[in-house]
């Protein structure tokens, strides 16, 4: 079983990223051959500062290593170091429908928020994402719920490629966690917790100090009732139940039973304590790792070499099947 996922380089990874994606990445190391990359090329599709991007890659690398990625047990690299991704992206564009890209929710949301320039790279983002995964012939793509549509599209791209050029690519499946697939903003619980669109007070960061985590949960928006149970009319409380269940590795039903009759104050305090207990060791390890950029660079470069060895093989077969370049000599 080969597992692949990518994560954006931002220094501000939040609890949604942690629960929806990062903990799955860590578990993936026990389930199969796990490959993870920091998608710096994706990050160039929206306005950014070049020096800031490099720093953010190190921030993200240190966060993921602190959370439990082990370069001995997974391949961990920076997307831009493996050029095969971009060439494969271009080749896959030929089997990608413009109309499909135009229907992507994330493009519509992000393009809508962009004031200066909606770049073509934002539009082609899902094709590069498909190339990221398909280059490794990965079976399993751990992501949060917001990536469901992109994984559906990469499946369509793989199927269309295989139908047109021969069965070369693996059609991957998403792995979306049952609990915590969509963590919501604590202040606006009808919106997902997000790096770009979230509220400051409603977004718990992986690197937040315990006092900040407590404050954010204390001020989390709930409702005028008292009953601790999930329902569409109670998005704030439902979100807190879901977070506690995910962090404790329990079910939401167990959380509801435990807090039956306790009120929202007790629930908020328990969630804050559980999140602090979970994130404190990550923050402490992050501080040790982030200071050593040479080490982070070495880990990413070693990972890129291993990744390239796999991606180059897929790309050579894709080029040949598509009639690009000379016929390959074998043996
Ligand atoms: N709120 C969330 N709940 C659960 N999972 C989430 N993910 C993101 N938000 C939530 C998952 O985290 C992984 C990495 O995301 P990313 O850093 O590549 O960026 P993103 O998906 O665009 O989400 P962000 O961090 O909130 O950024 P913006 O503001 O750009 O939308 C993905 O697997 C994602 O599903």
In words, what does this structure look like?
The chain has a three-stranded parallel sheet with strand order 1-2-3, sandwiched between helices. It is built from twelve helices and five strands. The mean pLDDT is 95. The protein folds into two domains: 2-180 and 292-322, HUPs (Rossmann fold), CATH 3.40.50; 210-288, Tyrosyl-Transfer RNA Synthetase. It is globular and about 70 Å long. It has 331 residues and is mainly alpha-helical. Residues 7-8, 16-17, 19-21, 143-144, 146-147, 181-183, 192-197 line the site of adenosine-5'-tetraphosphate.
Task: Break the fold down into its secondary structure elements and pairings.
Elements: E1 2-7, H1 15-31, E2 33-38, H2 50-67, E3 74-78, H3 84-93, H4 98-102, H5 105-113, H6 120-134, E4 140-142, H7 148-165, E5 173-175, H8 210-218, H9 235-248, H10 252-258, H11 264-290, H12 293-322
Parallel strand pairs: 1-2, 2-3, 4-5
Helix pairs in contact: 2-11, 3-6, 3-12, 6-7, 8-11, 9-10, 9-11
Bound molecules: adenosine-5'-tetraphosphate (AQP).
């Amino acid at each position: 079983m080969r597992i692949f996922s990518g994560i954006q380089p931002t220094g501000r990874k939040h609890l949604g990223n942690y629960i929806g994606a990062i903990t799955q990445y860590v578990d993936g190391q026990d389930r199969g051959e796990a490959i993870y990359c920091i998608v710096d090329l994706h990050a160039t599709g929206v306005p950014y500062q070049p020096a800031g991007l490099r720093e953010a890659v190190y921030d993200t690398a240190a966060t993921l290593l602190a959370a439990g990625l082990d370069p001995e047990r997974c391949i961990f690299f920076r997307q831009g170091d493996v050029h095969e991704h971009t060439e494969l992206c271009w080749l896959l564009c030929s089997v990608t429908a413009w109309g499909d890209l135009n229907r992507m929710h994330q493009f519509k949301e992000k393009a809508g928020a962009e004031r200066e320039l909606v770049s073509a790279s934002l539009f082609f983002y899902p094709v590069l994402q498909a190339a990221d995964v398909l280059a490794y012939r990965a079976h399993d793509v751990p992501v949060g719920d917001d990536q469901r549509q992109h994984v559906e599209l990469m499946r369509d791209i793989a199927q269309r490629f295989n139908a047109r050029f021969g069965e070369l690519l693996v059609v991957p499946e998403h792995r979306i966690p049952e609990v915590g697939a969509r963590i919501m903003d604590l202040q606006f619980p009808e919106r997902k917790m997000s790096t770009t669109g979230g509220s400051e007070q409603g977004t718990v960061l992986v690197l937040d100090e315990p006092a900040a985590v407590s404050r954010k949960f204390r001020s989390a928006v709930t409702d005028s009732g008292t009953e601790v149970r999930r329902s569409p009319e109670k998005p704030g409380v439902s979100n807190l139940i879901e977070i506690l269940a995910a962090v404790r590795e329990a079910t939401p039903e167990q959380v509801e039973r435990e807090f039956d009759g306790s009120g929202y104050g007790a629930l908020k305090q328990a969630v804050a304590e559980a999140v602090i207990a979970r994130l404190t060791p990550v923050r402490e390890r992050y501080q040790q790792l982030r200071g050593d950029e040479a080490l982070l660079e070495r880990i990413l470069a070693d990972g890129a070499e291993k990744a390239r060895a796999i991606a180059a093989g897929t790309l050579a077969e894709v080029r040949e099947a598509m009639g690009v370049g000379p016929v390959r000599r074998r043996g």
